[in-house]
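User: These chains co-purify. Model them together.
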Amino acid sequence: MNILCVGVGGQGTVLASKLIAQMAMLNGDDIDTAETIGMAQKGGSVVSHIRINKGVCSPLMPKGKADLVIAFEVIEAIRTLPYCNENTKFLINEKIIKPFSLDNTKDMLFKDYFNYLDNKGFKIISVNTDKIAKELNNSKIRNVALVAYAIKYKLINYSVDSLKNAVKNIVKPKFVDLNIKAIDMVINN
Amino acid sequence: MEKRFLLGNEAIALAAIHSGIALASGYPGTPSTEIMEAIANNKPNGLYVEWSTNEKAALEIAAGASYCGARTIVTMKQVGLNVASDPLMSLAYVGVEGGMCIVVADDPGPISSQTEQDTRTFGAYSKLPVLDPSSPEEAYHMTIFAFELSEKIKRPVILRPTTRVCHAYKSFDVFDYNNTIKKGTFVKDTARWVIFPKASYLNHIALEELRFSLSDEFSKSSFNKHINNNQKIGIATNGISYAYVNEALNGSNAYNLLKIGTPYPFPEKLAIEFLSNVSEVFIFEELDPYIERELLIIAGKYNLNVKIHGKLDKTNSLAGENTPENIAKFLNIAETSNGLSIDIPLPVRPPSLCSGCPHRASFYAVKQAMKGKNAIFNGDIGCYTLGNAMPLNMVDTCLCMGADITLAQGINKVDESAICFSFIGDSTFFASGLTGIVNAVYNKANITIIVLDNSTTAMTGNQPHPGIPFTLSGDVAKAISIPKVLEAVGLDEVITLSPFEQDKAIEAVKEISAKQGVKAIIFKAPCVFLSKAKAPYYINEKCIKCNKCIREIGCPAIAFKNDKVVIDEDMCNGCGLCKGLCPVKAINQREV
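Assistant: Joint model of the two components:
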């Protein structure tokens, strides 16, 4: 399976990618990922390539081969199209981050970009993580929430328990409970 | 043996620890930084780690320990090797006692670097062995081998991963090497440790001889592969491109294959075997046409009738990264795809200063103070290079670490009417700024130095430096005071203040830049990654949509949405810079 996890630098895509990889490890699957680490993490476009059980292969997937796109931001979801095919599924966080431009009077709305993708006929699930972030008073838990949604909607084939175990293995101890709470909120809603 | 999921850089770190290193030193730089961090996070008792002030210092420190017989690792990015090149070239001649692995991470693209230089070429120039891993797993095995080889030949060995290997995670089996840490003793031997022309002549011969003996040994190395599928066309490749080739071949035997994991000394015998069996060769490698040149030399030397295609005949692109699909298309075995196309205009998203970043406030203060004046803003390497973006547009030059200080001096010597500013970060100040500042004082320069002190090395992910009261291993350190250093070297005036006190900051810049001589303002405020966000700001109904807050400072948290100017309160760090700009006082802070 090939998964792209995309967003804007600072949103936490790397942790989401690590959680998926950790679940794959716990499941005994072979896993390769490629991360964007460096300058782009300061507000640029960031992409994680996640490849599960692909045998001897490159950490970057070739174009047209993504099975699933997990997007933290809608413009970045569209930017993955060269990696997609007609069967690619999308999980999109209902968020738009407008990049700075001097012509900043033009509006950019989530729904316009979302509709562009939707009109192409993909299977898309969009989720709103605002409520969970607000309730837990932490905007950083959106990444674990998105992975939980991917499990809830059976976009990835791992269990809720394996996500919780992954959290215990890689999230800093003092944030584990908060992350577990976020997972439960997603699953029980 | 256990299965681990490791970042390429963590694999290198783990292999170094498994090899029993006693000392690790380095300077942060993408894509190499995580190696030192992983060593520090997993270090056994008795292993010494440090972030050194720069790469030259790091290399010399490791060399000293290796002279004593201890195993050492040094890490840096490719441009760091330029800084460390002075000790490197001499150390190749002098050699070491304990195994020494110099990790230099290259950055094809470049993704986060100034240049696309190739450490295989640099390594060959230094005449030291170079190992070139194609995966995190191979990086692990090559690091283990690097120490063994280094101890055998008594010279450092260079490991040069590229970004896609450094920043790839892979699950693989890790073996239980448990070399205990061996410290050492310095044994006096002036003929060995003191570099002199006569000894250098002999060492030069030894280095050249080593090229021949290692070339033969490497022809048998498992890091190199020749797969003869009895085809007339061959593919030669290395590093991450080898992974792309494998993916595209998917088990096909349509080509003969040569994979080079030891670029220097080049495995000549293996290459002859490869070249003798094909009539045409296509080469996939990033950065320099290194393998291509070696194969051309060997084909010429042995009069082999083979056509060689790569960058030198412009078959392949001259710069940038290879990609899996480009190689797949070229090899034309399986169906390849271009994916789907994007048929609406998408806004580009270049990296930018974070919301709440103190550098934004510093740049804005200097910009305000210099409005209408002939001022030149010399920038440097770090997050603050991003001050070049619109609307700040506050970086007129950026060359290499420390050059902001010295370029400003050169410009002012011939363009005397220009008010020359040097913007330097706190980590860069210690890494390469000091000698330039001493030069400025001694040679009576006329510059204003702006130290952007955010109390960290921010761009590479917040590493400590000599101005911070703790070290990489978490020990308490004696932080070196930047203002005291500046006063000690004889600056005419040194002021420290917070850039968020905009009015004071603007006045200070006006006042100090009008004076002659070398003077400095230290804008001190912590990186947003180090400080807890304050309550966010919001824009109320008094807003007249003049967009001044957007146009002037380019904060990523402020945008025009649904016919309103709004602050994304998730992104806002509560710095309040925008509040001061608003002509109708429509920007206020939320109550906590």
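The longest strand of chain A covers residues 45-52.
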